[in-house]
Amino acid sequence: MNKVDVKNAIEYLEMQKRLFPNSANVLSGNFDLAIAALEKQMPKKVTAESGKWPDGRKRISHYCPSCLNELYANQEFCDECGQRLDWSENDGCY
Ligand SMILES: [Zn+2]
Known about the structure:
By secondary structure, the protein is α+β, with helices and mostly antiparallel strands. It has 2 domains: 3-39; 44-86, no CATH class. Helix content is 33%, strand content 17%. The protein is built from 3 helices and 4 strands. The chain has helices spanning 3-19, 24-27, 30-39, and strands spanning 44-45, 47-52, 58-63, 85-86. Strands 1-4 form a two-stranded parallel ribbon. Strands 2-3 form a two-stranded antiparallel ribbon. β2 and β3 (58-63) form a beta hairpin. Zinc ion is lined by residues 64, 66-67, 69, 78, 80-81, 83. Residues 64, 66-67, 69, 78, 80-81, 83 line the site of zinc ion (ZN).
């Protein structure tokens, strides 16, 4: 599953939602569930925050952009919500 496939699948489901607004899948939220699951496959940049350890050394904490769960360095997916993560702008150091 690559980024383009996932993007196309999301666009297809969004289009189906607009074309058939009264379908059982739209009314029961199945399309929204499928779209939300697919969006978790698209990597999102982790959030970094600078802080300090109790002994004064610099500490950088990383958080999931979707649920704000604190992350371990270079996790591919958030273990709380399943979001695929993009560490390209972070070196993952603590
Ligand atoms: Zn998360």
